[in-house]
Amino acid sequence: MSLENKKTNQGSSTELLRFTTAGSVDDGKSTLIGRLLYDSKSIFQDQYEQIEKISEKRGEEGVNLALLTDGLKAEREQGITIDVAYRYFSTPKRKFIIADTPGHIQYTRNMVTGASTANVALLLVDARNGVIEQTKRHAIVASLLQIPHIVVCINKMDLVDYSEEVYNRIHDEFEAFATKLDVKDVSFIPISALKGDNVVDRSTAMPWYEGTTLMYYLENVHISSDHNFIDCRFPVQYVVRPYNDEFHDYRGYAGRVAGGVFKKGDEVTVLPSGFTSKISKIDSFDGEQDAAFPPQSVTLLLEDDIDISRGDMIVRTNNKPEVEQDLEVMLCWFDHSKPLQPRGKYIIRHTSQEAKCMIKEIRYKLDINSLHRITEDFEIKSNDIARVVIRTTKPLFFDSYRKNRNTGSIILVDEGSNNTVAAGMIK
User: What's the whole-model pTM score?
Assistant: First the structure.
C-alpha cells in the first residue's frame, strides 16, 4: 500500500492544509476570508443574518463579509485586527486552518508566528497600489520561513475595471522581485473578494484569465511532499508506563514524527546516549500500525530496555542529525519591552528539548525591505530579524531549517517572565 493510500486509511481521510494570509491594512484580507467561508458554505445562517444586520445599521452597501472575521468588537470600532487569529473550515476535499495575521508594518513577529507551520501563504496585493514595501516584506518573511507555496492574490480587480494590463504589470513586478528570494512555487490569481470573482466561483468579468479559482487551488495544491520523508526524526515527548495488569511491561515513547518514515523492525539510535535498538511496535490513537510518518503522533516501542526520557531523539542509525552546542540562527525578535541582550541568557526550546543558552555573537541585522546585511547597528528590537550565534548548555539534535522545519526551528524564552521573546530558524 502506498504512503498516500495509507494516509487516507488512517482515521481521517481529508488532508489538512494550513495557510496564512498577509497584506497591508486595507488590502481586503478579512473580506477575502469572509468570502471563502461564505461561498464554501462554512458559516451558519444566523451568523450571516447577524452581519447582514450590522452592515445595514452602518449603512453599507450589501453584506460586509469582513465582519465574519473581525472577532472583537473593540477592534472593529478601531477598525484594526490584532495578533494572529486562527479560523477553521472544511470542504469535502480538505480541512483548512487559516492563520490570519494583521497587515501593519510592526507585525513581522505575528507573521512569523502564524506562518511557521503554513503550507501556503496568500499575499494580498491591492490592484490599485501594486507591489508595495509591505508586499515585499511579507514575501521576504514567507521566504525566510520556507513556506513551500505562495499565492499572490491581486485583489480589488473590480476597482481597476478587471484590467488584464494591471494584472500583468503586478505579476511581472512581483516575479522580478521574487527572483532574489528563496521561493519555489509562486502562483498569481486576480480576484475581487468583495464581489467574489475567482475566490470560490469563476469570474465572468475576466475571460482573459485562464488559471484556477483560489478555492480550487487551495483544495488541490500538492502538499504531501512538503514534509521531509527522508531524515527520520522522532523527538520523545513522554514516556508511557501504564503500570497496570493489562500492560504490565509496557514502555512506550510518545511523540510526533518530525521527519522520515519509521517502520516496524527498523534499527534506530537514541540520542544523546547513542544506544541502538529495533522498533518492535508502533501504536497510535487508531491502534497498531506498520509505519509512522510526519505529522503523525504515535508511540514507539523498542526491543531493548534503554533509559530514554523527554527531550531525547530517536533517529535512524545511518542518518543522524547535527549534534552541537553552538547554533547559527536567523532570529526574529518578539519582545516589545526589551531588545536582545548580547551575551544575554535565555531558555531555548527545540523540539521536546529545553536548555539554557547564551547569545554568543550577533553577526548582522537583516534589512527586511532590501535584504541587505546591517553590520553597524546591533540593537535588535521587536520585529527585527538578525543572524546570531547561540551557545547552549547541552548539545541539541537538529537539522537546518531548510532541510526540516520541525527540527530546524527554536524559540527563546525569558527566564524571569517566561515570555517567548524570539523564534529562530537554524541555518
Answer: 0.81
